[in-house]
Amino acid sequence: MSGNRGVVYKGPKNLEVDNIDFPKLELGKRKCEHGVILKNVATNICGSDQHIFRGRFTVPEGTILGHEITGEVVEAGRDVEFIKVGDIVSVPFNVACGRCRNCKDGHTDVCMNVNDDAPVGAYGFDLGGWPGGQSEYTMVPYADFNLLKFPDKDQAMEKILDLALVSDILPTGFHGCVTAGVGVGSTVYIAGAGPVGRCAAASARLLGAACVIVGDVNKERLALVKKAGFETIDLTLDASIPEQIEAILGVPEVDCAVDCVGYEAHGHGLDADRDVPEAALNDAMEVIRAGGGIGVPGIYVGADPGAIDENSKQGNLSLNFGKAWIKSMSIGTGMAPIAKYNRQLMQAILWGRLELSTIMNYQVISLDKAPEAYQEFDFGAPKKFIIDPHNSIVA
Questions:
Q1: What sequence ranges are listed for the domain Alcohol dehydrogenase-like C-terminal (predicted)?
Q2: In terms of C-beta density within 10 A (0-12 exposed, 13-18 middle, 19 or more buried), how is residue 329 classed?
Q3: From CA 26, how far away is CA 371, in angstroms rounded?
Q4: Following DSSP, what letter does each residue of 34-49 receive, concatenated?
Q5: What is 254-277 written as a DSSP string?
Q6: How many CA atoms lie within 13 A of 262 on its CB side?
Q7: pLDDT, tens digit, for every residue of 301-356?
Q8: What phi-psi label fits residue 28: left (phi over 0), alpha (psi between -120 and 50 degrees) or beta?
């Protein structure tokens, strides 16, 4: 095997599917005997990839994009003991060594050994230089620690579309709910009806929430969420978010809120078409009850070249933190530690506790169609695009 192709970043809104190097079991100039090479079965387009596509998260030109990877092991290094050739595995988007203090504490989102510049590593970003996985083949290091093996290959392929979400957005949405304190009987507001917001809604239901309300400016995405049995509020309307929540619950507040939008948020009402990077956070602070919690899996960055003002370009947002403080609320931020949740979410899928096709609206595409799908996703398509590099899913 020597050929490989991948989705390559050429600049903002400019992607190409190019021939790229076949991955090697190497880290720089040294052998990576703890790694494996995967033949990718499913590699999805994520909202985080859209930040890069739009030029709002900078990466070097030539970067191979993609961090949601599910694949079949085709080669394993000498030191890999428990993952075998032929296994179907899910790859957490966090690159983690499994050896540092943070990894041993379960914080694989802030591994200290996989990025020389910051305690965070991820495929397909400028976070440690790890090539992305929107390609035919990918190398994964620290395989015994990082990879989640699906117990039965045939069963996994039957549910591969749902299982493809376990690499990122399902645990990310779940993490947002957990950090917000969602539990049995909770009322929950989820900002954003994109794929992560839809996963958060499904996660809140799995965790026992009594009422899950999803807000967005995209009417097609809201219709998809409504069809799946969740409450929705339309942020383009003149009515405020608390007013719309009160129309559903009888009170203008919720127990928990989850920000699944991040720094590319829009305002609402008359500002629904305007960039307001702190909007989702301030909305969550407004609607949460005293003593409630907010989970923030939506991405916020320290540098945003496309932001509306100089402060926002440096990651400095205007937050009503006084309101947050006086309410004695808790706020949990950061990337999700995928390995903390992926096994139990896999089991929930395999045993029929999570069926995601209705709310996710999957569209399986070939690798060559990826640039076109990025464009469609950028316009707010109510879909989850899953790239099938080898026609494994179609077959």
A1: 195-264
A2: buried
A3: 29
A4: T-EEEEEEEEE--HHH
A5: EEEEEE-S-TT-B--GGGTTSB-T
A6: 25
A7: 989 898 888 999 998 999 988 988 999 999 999 999 999 999 999 999 999 999 89
A8: left
Could you tell me the two tokens for 271?
A: 């500002």
Spatial CA neighbour of 174 closest among 51, 354, 43, 330: 354
| CA–CA–CA angle 132, 138, 142 (5° rounding) | 95
At position 223, the amino acid (one-letter code) is A
Domain ranges of the chain: 5-168+337-387, 171-333
One fold for both 5-168+337-387 and 171-333?
A: no
Mean local confidence (pLDDT), 178-201: 98
pLDDT score of 257 more than 80 = yes
Q: Measure CA 29 to chain center.
A: 31
5-168+337-387 CATH: 3.90.180.10
Under CATH, domain 171-333 is a member of which superfamily? Answer: NAD(P)-binding Rossmann-like Domain (3.40.50.720)
Global pTM value: 0.96
State the pLDDT at residue 1: 54
Radius of gyration of the chain (CA): 20
